[in-house]
Amino acid sequence: MSNPYQPDTELGRSERQVVLAYMGTAAVLLLLMMTFGVIMRLAQGNLLDVRPDWFYRILTLHGSGMVGLAGLAGAGIMWYFLRQHVQLSLPVAWTNLALFLIGVVLILGGVIAGGYAGAWTFLYPLPAHGMGVWSKSGAASFLVGLLLIGVGFLLLHLDTARGIVKRYGGLGKGLGWPQLFGHNDGNAPPAAVVASTMVLIVNTLGLVSGAAIVVMSLVNLYFPAFQVDPLLAKNMIYFFGHVFINATIYMSVIAVYSLLPRYTGRPWKSSNKVFLGAWTASTLMVIIVYPHHLLMDFAMPEWMTVMGQIISYTSGLPVLVVTAYGAITILYRSGIRWDLGAGLLALSAFGWAAGTIPAMVDATITVNQVMHNTLWVPGHFHFYLLLGVMAMVLGFMSWMGRTYGQGARSSLDLPAFSLYVLGGLGLVGMFLLGGVAGTPRRYADYLQAWVPYAQWGAFFGALVLLATTVLVLRFFGQFLAGREAVDARVA
Ligand code: HEM
Questions:
Q1: Most ligand 1 atoms within 8 A of CB, residue of 382, 420, 446, 451 to mutate
Q2: Residue 128 φ/ψ, nearest 5 degrees
Q3: What distance in Å separates the CA atoms of residue 144 and residue 138, rounded to the nearest whole number?
Q4: Spans of the chain, pLDDT less than 70
Q5: How far apart are CA 310 and CA 313, in angstroms?
Q6: 34 C-alpha to ligand 1 centroid (Å)
Q7: Which of 86, 204, 308, 320 pairs with 285 at a CA distance of 20 to 30 A?
């Protein structure tokens, strides 16, 4: 079997550097945000004394930080593989990172100095009602930070759109529509292009909606006479939030499509109608499924909530099925030589698939009425974010480290991988069981009956943090050790 760690010659040093900067920034933030996660679980388990106002600040940082870093890491993966097929702008990629970092500083300032603790969902009109807990400038700093990050991603997607349209002649062609709806000549774009086209379509719509409501919230903050219909605002926020976090999966999954073939020596078959049809179907459904976040809002039009339930059963499914099926067929009897990167990528297909099951359960209206504000919800999204998206990200980083850094296995790989799986399943399991036991979501203080789930959650969370620390240190260590060798290997 050929060596999976062959550098890609289409990318020069400066292209690799920007991807490295994306992944490195995301990795550092991941460790920090995981630490915040463990602190919250320790506080809920009465093992650490955290004042409630600080609990909600930490919750706000953890939520916005995790969603942001997942977006950044996904964008790094997408950029790396898309760049091999279309021309992308380096200055735009760096601008996105710069705006991201400025946004992070403003968010940290808004939360730590300004006291903002209204969660990453900034539900209108909450930012304007700090009730003495946070200042107006704190809320404004948080919102402006989000806005800058959104603008950065918008620029990036406009650039990927430009590149795809230039190379393939249109977004429909980027999704492989001529081959999907007409004669399949076998010349559909590669999976990385199809996925990037889908992501740019949905994320552009989501980001515009998010930016619009952030601006309206900012105006409302300083001119309270300017008001927005709160239900409209909630729809805009959840449309943005749902699409953005889903896009992180659709960007990161490109690593699975592009790297599992290298590990197995088999191609990922993307030029067929089933694969193309799945991506087109998910493009539409990801846009219209978001009302499943508003099932408890009795003022929502009934048809929207019904649509939210039905589409939840089908939304992610097409892409998920083609990915899981593709991963199984490509791995089966391939004679793959397992290592950390391959293991994490295979784990990610499992984590994503398994995580959608409790998500679908929660999207059923009758279940949602009981479970929605319980820990069942963090249970399902941590499942596919931690064991799905983050496994894709860490898998890609492990592959990058060995390809461009110092290429060697380590005796720490297997223990770190096992700890990550064990800790991840335990953390998610405690959220889900806590939800079944009726533990409310986003509570700083618990009744005694809920405490054990939090304590075990803190334990498993600490295992995940430890494993991730090893993986991230390996990533940085490989680059530091292999700095000299990279250019020679690529040349
Ligand atoms: C060591 C790993 C992690 C731990 C210990 C952890 C812990 C927590 C805790 C305790 C909460 C609050 C739950 C509640 O009471 O409602 C939470 C919320 C959340 N977590 Fe994590 N988490 C981890 C990893 C992740 C990852 C990898 C992501 C995404 C990439 C993530 C995204 C979120 C989001 C979006 C929220 C919701 C915040 C909100 O309700 O406003 N977490 N997490």
A1: 382
A2: -85, 0
A3: 10
A4: 1, 316, 407, 482-491
A5: 6
A6: 8
A7: 86
Nearest ligand 1 atom to alpha carbon 431: 13
For ligand 1, whether the C-beta of 393 sits within 6 Å is: no
DSSP string over 177-220: HHHHHS---S-PPPHHHHHHHHHHHHHHHHHHHHHHHHHHHHHH
457/464 Cα distance (integer angstroms): 10
What is the separation, in whole angstroms, between the first and last Cα of the chain? 22
Which is the closest atom of ligand 1 to the Cα of 458?
5
Sign of CA dihedral 141, 146, 149, 150: negative
Q: Using a 6 Å cutoff on CB, does residue 353 contact ligand 1?
A: no
Exposure string over 122-141, b if 16+ CB within 10 A, otherwise e: bebbbbbebeeebeeebbbb
Looking at residue 489, what is its pLDDT?
A: 57
Is 123 near ligand 1, meaning CB less than 6 Å away? no
The angle formed by the CA atoms of residues 364, 370 and 372, to the nearest 5 degrees, is 70
Model confidence, pTM: 0.95
User: What's the pLDDT score for residue 486?
Assistant: 57
CB of 371 closer than 6 A to ligand 1?
A: no
